[in-house]
Write a structure and sequence with these properties.
Layout: H1 3-13, H2 22-35, H3 40-55, H4 59-74
Helix pairs in contact: 2-3, 2-4, 3-4
Length: about 80
C-alpha cells in the first residue's frame, strides 16, 4: 500500500475530511528525528496535528504549525 493510500484510508476511518500534504509532514518528522532525537518524530507530528486542529484545521493552520515546529527543531 502506498503512503498516500494509507493516509487517505486512515483519514476516512477517522472521519476526517482532509487531504493530507504528506511531504511537509515527512520533512518535519525527519528534522525532529535528526535535530532532536529519533522519538521526537512521532511526538512532534502528533503535537503539530493537535495544535493545527485546535486552530481550526485549515491548510494554513497546518502549515503554520509545521513552520513553528521546524524552526524550533532547527534551534
Amino acid at each position: 500500500m502506498s503512503l498516500t493510500s494509507w493516509a487517505q484510508q486512515l483519514s476516512d476511518a477517522l472521519g476526517l475530511e482532509l487531504e493530507v500534504d504528506i511531504d511537509p509532514l515527512l520533512d518535519l518528522a525527519r528534522d525532529a528525528a535528526h535535530q532532536v532525537e529519533r522519538p521526537a518524530a512521532p511526538i512532534t507530528t502528533f503535537l503539530v496535528g493537535y495544535a493545527a486542529g485546535m486552530r481550526g484545521g485549515a491548510a494554513d493552520d497546518i502549515a503554520d504549525c509545521i513552520e513553528i515546529a521546524t524552526d524550533l527543531a532547527a534551534g
